[in-house]
């Protein structure tokens, strides 16, 4: 039988990993967009908007981890990760799976979705 404490700890670790990694990818996305363009244009705006969306999904995943007993927060974070997952898959299909960042986003959003939908984490101290 599976130990619930171990399962919760794995879920907490997965949420932490997915959240911080997703934030890092979002920040990197923003930095690449700024570095690669000398002026503001519609393509840059969309690129930066995507980076902000990725970053905010990572933040939502971390918030869900911290508010693990709040079912609404966990569900909203899972939905955000689900939308990110759908966008990641769409990006990969459009680019014929040639862009590795798409696969990375699919992995991170999948982990984030699963972690947000798993059992709540019990906290006994600062976390």
- Proportion of residues in helical segments: over 70%
Protein structure class: mainly alpha
Q: What is the 3D shape?
A: elongated
The ordered string of helix (H) and strand (E) elements is HHHH
Largest sheet: number of strands, sense, barrel closure:
none
Average per-residue pLDDT, rounded, comes to: 89
The fraction of residues assigned to DSSP E strands is under 5%
* End-to-end C-alpha gap: 27 Å
What radius of gyration results from the CA coordinates? 16 Å
Report the total helices: 4
Number of strands: 0
Which spans have pLDDT < 50 for at least 5 consecutive residues? none
Q: Which oligomerization state do the chains in this entry correspond to?
A: single chain
Tell me about this structure.
By secondary structure, this protein is mainly α. It is built from four helices and no strands. It has helices at residues 4-36, 42-66, 71-94, 100-117. Helix 1 (4-36) packs antiparallel against helix 4 (100-117) and helix 2 (42-66) packs parallel to helix 4. The model has no long low-confidence stretch (mean pLDDT 89).
Task: Describe the secondary structure blueprint for this structure.
Blueprint: H1 4-36, H2 42-66, H3 71-94, H4 100-117
Helix pairs in contact: 1-2, 1-4, 2-3, 2-4, 3-4
Structure at a glance:
With 127 residues, the protein is mostly helical. It contains four helices and no strands.
Name the descriptors:
mainly alpha
């Amino acid at each position: 039988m599976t130990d619930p404490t171990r399962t919760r700890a794995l879920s907490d670790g997965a949420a932490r990993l997915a959240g911080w990694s997703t934030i890092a990818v979002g920040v990197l996305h923003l930095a690449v967009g700024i570095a690669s363009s000398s002026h503001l244009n519609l393509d840059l705006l969309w690129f930066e908007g995507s980076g902000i969306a990725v970053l905010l999904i990572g933040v939502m995943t971390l918030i869900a981890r911290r508010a693990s007993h709040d079912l609404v927060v966990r569900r909203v974070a899972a939905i955000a990760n689900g939308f990110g997952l759908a966008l990641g898959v769409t990006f990969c299909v459009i680019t014929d799976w040639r862009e590795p960042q798409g696969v990375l986003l699919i992995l991170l959003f999948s982990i984030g979705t699963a972690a947000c939908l798993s059992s709540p984490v019990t906290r006994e101290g600062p976390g």
